[in-house]
Specification:
The relative contact order is 0.08. The chain is 34% helix and 22% strand. Strand 19 and strand 20 (494-496) form a beta hairpin. Helix 1 (77-89) packs across helix 12, helix 8 crosses helix 9 (258-271) and helix 19 (604-616) packs parallel to helix 20. It has 763 residues and is of the alpha/beta class. The longest helix is centred in the C-terminal third of the chain and has 19 residues, at 680-698. The protein folds into five domains: 3-106, 3-Layer(aba) Sandwich (GIY-YIG endonuclease); 119-209, no CATH class; 220-412, Rossmann fold (3-Layer(aba) Sandwich), CATH 3.40.50; 418-465 and 522-658, P-loop containing nucleotide triphosphate hydrolases (Rossmann fold, 3-Layer(aba) Sandwich); 668-760, Alpha-Beta Plaits (2-Layer Sandwich). Bound molecules: adenosine-5'-diphosphate and zinc ion (ZN) (2 copies). One zinc ion (ZN) is lined by residues 470, 472-473, 475, 510, 512-513, 515. Residues 479, 481-482, 497, 499-500, 502 line the site of one zinc ion.
Length: 763
């Protein structure tokens, strides 16, 4: 009876593909192993076996699989179940999930890129059953040969390897591994001398694998720091909540010690022999947190991060498959795809963070939600932690799906910062503005610097200035590929598109009217930095944004310099708002609240509240209340007051009322349909036809088509259709209809060249 395997291939087509298994390896293949298979006329892919069966597919030629790459599965059945859930829920293919799930070293069809363990060349005796007599014989022979160099090399090897003692005690384990390079070094011999001994059949070389993973070190703290009374209460409440609920929300103000509570919970779980996944948002490079956890858990902790090399990620993956997996994985969203054998707890830190949602490419999945599903599949508990819960999560608590535990005080009763709102418009009228700074903020910064304290400034725009404008004719440089203006990056002398990366030199004069008066409009982080240098020439400033943190080391240096106090002012984009813990920051400036509030998005207040509260939370020290200056033109907007009073309850109340009235999440679900094409008329016709067909099925739950705020990116025109689905609607039904519609349109000749995709639960 011949056997067939369904294989998941890294392509955005269909579901799985069936191949016949050659008898040479058909009984070795298991679900979760990789096979290389032919595809199309001449392509070759490696894919994952998802099913083995005896059902010969009808009506098509079934090709033979070419090669079996694994003796043991590299993907576990539970993982495949999660992949399937993601493909179903987020309306994408298993192939797309596969591409996101595996580090490239485990899936690349290109030989050169595949993961190769790092090896060193080592030396051993050719004769495996060598006796002491034989050793002596070899030595005599070398002496007779009159090559002093060869003899010396031999003697050094015998000494370094300890081979004599090993033979004497009949214990080959006692032989010390000798690296070829070390041996040559130690004996001052060259490669020719060494080759001679190999040719004579005395020595041979072999490759020894060395891991790239840091050895982690032994935990130095061992004992956990005792919890405060409030923390201890939360710790107990969380554990009790898990008797009734699978998910608990820990709503704790900034610096209340949530991390400390996590550490105690992790300790309990690993004591019981289970594993923990500690999920973090992408933006924060994990340095500070990892250091803190390593001190407690040492080499029981593994880190899985997109800024780590692919080889390191492959090794973490393989370690998790081994008999000695890490007990704790700290990682960003892709760590939900790691193999877990015995998961007991998932912690999602900063659960409100948008970077948990992958935007592009597919799968456009939300890692917090995928982690909740993973935990449910593995009977693990979940803890969602944050100072500013997402509306979605808080709504789930209100609906009785999640438990809630609160921490309302900072550790050691440090006060929450005092937030002062300053009206930019009024200060401007009184001519009290200096660049991006109001007089109030400047005074506070000055005081802080005088007292040796530090300052964090938050400006959510990178570059020098968001736009350049000709003073004479109003000309503004725009991207030729996208529907946006170019951002001025003066340090690089370039104007850059933040959507496609297009850049060109900053012109000396206006190309439209030849005017020489080109003005920078608005403030990016780079320009803020310039102003600080001019106003406080003595202060050392560091800037933290996408441009200064391309590498892991650059980021880590900025953080550690600030921590050590070698820099006094840290200016940055939303990167500075996230989970950093500094002891000496007394002033935080929010330079421009309005750009956040004016985003054309129904979540803009929710996000603005989160970002402002988070960055405000960086202020304050043991013995002194921190100060925050919040600059805005709309000081009376309710959300400003809610930030000032740290009034999450009223933010939630107002937001839910609004979302109920206008029918937005979390009261319903959203699915966006995106269409892209090089020709505007094609994408326009497609979107109108698409919406018409959708309305036939979903009625007035369909809105649009509309052109998004940036209507063209990378030469492609974009249209968007919105589908609102009631919470109690049957999702599988909705999804299968949507798949039918996109299949239908993609099969039409006219629209074949268009890109169509869905974004489920968009952010
Ligand atoms: P959160 O995660 O809620 O923002 P952290 O866990 O980072 O708060 O705690 C804030 C600061 O207080 C950290 O510097 C931390 O080391 C300290 N801290 C919190 N709880 C304790 C504790 N129980 N013992 C010692 N230090 C603590
Ligand atoms: Zn001009
Ligand atoms: Zn562009």
């Amino acid at each position: 009876m011949s056997l067939f395997a369904d294989v998941i291939l890294p392509i955005p087509l269909g579901t799985t593909f069936t191949y016949s298994l050659p008898q040479s390896f058909d009984n070795l293949v298991r679900v979760g192993c990789r096979l290389t298979v032919p595809f199309g006329k001449s392509k070759k892919y490696s894919g994952i076996v998802s099913r083995i069966h005896q059902e010969k597919p009808e009506g098509c030629v079934v090709k033979d699989a070419l090669e079996l790459l694994d003796a043991e599965p590299i993907v576990l059945p539970q993982q495949l179940k999660l992949w399937q859930w993601i493909a179903d829920y987020y309306l994408c293919t298993m192939g797309e999930v596969y591409k996101a799930a595996l580090p490239s070293g485990l899936k690349e069809e290109d030989e050169k890129k595949t993961y190769k363990p790092r090896t060193t060349t080592c030396v051993r005796l050719k004769d495996r059953d060598c006796t002491l007599e034989r050793l002596e014989e070899i030595r005599m022979q070398l002496q007779r040969g009159r090559s002093a160099k060869q003899l010396q090399l031999w003697d050094v090897y015998v000494t370094m390897s300890g081979v004599k003692a090993a033979i004497r005690l009949s214990n080959p384990q006692l032989i010390v591994e000798v690296g070829k390079a070390d041996l040559l070094d130690e004996s001052s011999a060259n490669a020719t001398v060494f080759s001679a001994l190999v040719e004579k059949g005395f020595l041979e070389t072999y490759e020894h694998q060395v891991g790239r993973l840091p050895q982690g070190g032994i935990p130095t703290e061992m004992v956990l720091r005792p919890l405060s009374e409030h923390q201890q209460q939360a710790f107990v409440q969380i554990q009790q909540s898990w008797l009734k609920y699978d998910v608990c929300l820990l709503h704790g103000v900034t610096s209340s010690g949530k991390t400390e509570v996590y550490i105690h919970l992790i300790n309990e779980v690993i004591k019981s022999g289970k594993q923990v996944l500690y999920l973090l948002p992408e933006i924060v490079l994990t340095t500070q947190l990892v250091d803190r956890l390593k001190r407690v858990f040492g080499n029981r902790l593994g880190v899985y991060h997109s800024k780590y090399s692919d080889a390191e990620r492959v090794e973490v993956w393989q370690k998790q498959l081994s008999d000695e997996p890490y007990d704790i994985i700290v990682g960003v969203r892709s760590s939900v795809f790691l193999p877990y054998k015995n998961l007991g707890l998932v912690i999602v830190d900063e659960e409100h963070e948008n970077s948990f949602k992958q935007q592009d490419p597919a799968p456009r999945y939300h890692a917090r939600n995928a982690a909740l599903v993973l935990a449910r599949m593995m009977n693990a508990k979940t803890l969602l932690g944050t100072a500013t819960p997402s509306m979605d999560t808080y709504y789930n608590y209100k609906m009785g799906k999640y438990a809630l535990v609160q921490l309302t005080e900072r550790y050691q009763q440090v006060l929450l910062p005092d937030i002062e709102v300053v009206n930019i418009a009024e200060e401007r009228r009184k001519k009290m503005i200096n660049g991006p700074f109001t007089s109030v903020l400047l005074r506070k910064m000055q005081e802080a610097l005088q007292q040796g304290e530090q300052v964090i400034l938050f400006q959510n725009r990178r570059g020098y200035a968001p736009t350049v404008e000709c003073h004479d004719c109003g000309w503004v440089p725009r991207c030729p590929n996208c529907d946006v203006s170019l951002t001025n990056h003066r340090g690089q002398g370039l104007m850059t598109c933040h959507y496609c990366g297009y850049h060109s030199p900053i012109p000396q004069q206006c190309p439209a009217c030849n005017g020489r008066d080109l003005l920078s409009q608005g403030y990016g982080t780079e320009r803020v930095e310039d102003y600080i240098q001019a106003i406080f020439p003595e202060a050392k400033v560091a800037r933290m944004d996408l441009d200064t943190t391309r590498s892991r080391t650059a980021y880590e240096k900025i953080i550690s310099d600030f921590q050590k106090g070698s820099t006094q002012i840290l200016v940055g984009t939303q990167m500075v708002t996230k989970g950093l813990d500094f002891g000496n920051v007394s002033v935080v400036g929010i330079l421009d609240a309005d750009t956040m509030l004016n985003q054309p998005d129904f979540r803009s207040y929710e996000h603005a509240f989160q970002m402002m509260s988070q960055v405000a939370g960086r202020a304050g020290r043991r013995n002194k209340q921190g100060a925050v200056v919040l600059q805005t033109k709309v000081p009376d907007l309710p959300v400003i007051g809610q930030v000032v009073r740290n009034d999450y309850a009223s933010l939630y109340q107002e937001t839910i009322e609004e979302r109920t009235a206008f029918h937005y999440p979390p009261i319903c679900r959203l699915i966006y349909v995106y269409m892209k094409h090089r020709h505007e008329d094609v994408v326009h016709r497609l979107s109108v036809d698409y919406a018409t067909l959708m309305r036939k099925i979903f009625g007035d739950r369909v809105l649009g088509p509309e052109t998004p705020p940036v209507g063209r990116v990378q030469l492609l025109y974009i249209r968007k259709i919105v589908l609102k689905v009631e919470l109690n609607a049957s999702l599988p039904e909705v999804r299968s209809r949507l798949r039918q519609i996109s299949d239908y349109f993609q099969s039409l000749g006219d629209y074949k060249s268009a890109t169509i995709y869905y974004d489920v639960d968009p952010l």
